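Minutes, project check-in
Item: structure for the 131-residue chain
Input as provided by the requester:
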Amino acid sequence: MDFLRPYASQLLSVLRIMTGLLLLQHGTTKFLNFPVGPMNNAPPMTMGGAAGILELVGGPLIIIGLFTRPVAFILSGMTAVAYFYAHAPRGFYPLLNGGELAVLYSFVFLYLAAAGGGAWSADRLISGSRD
């Protein structure tokens, strides 16, 4: 699949933007009650509330690609904790314990922490790098 190689940095940015948008909705449902769902009105001093704060702050930072590496590293840890706290006690297999999304988020954020924000990121604009 060498035909996509020239677009690797742009596709990294697309992955980052979409992941940030998807994560942001977890924070908005917890604190802004949009969309309406079972996680609305999360108390900030609970595990879910703390995660909601990280999602509300980290989501937009990931979307624009600002401080991508440290923010993605923190979010990777947060989603790993979410998996082991909320899903793993329900069983070993993520398919059966409902933890597939948490595991996937954790590894995507870990990848973003290593790879950076890509071509379309504020980090790239600030550093002036062409990578």
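Outcome recorded: The first helix runs from residue 8 to 31.
No further action items on this chain.
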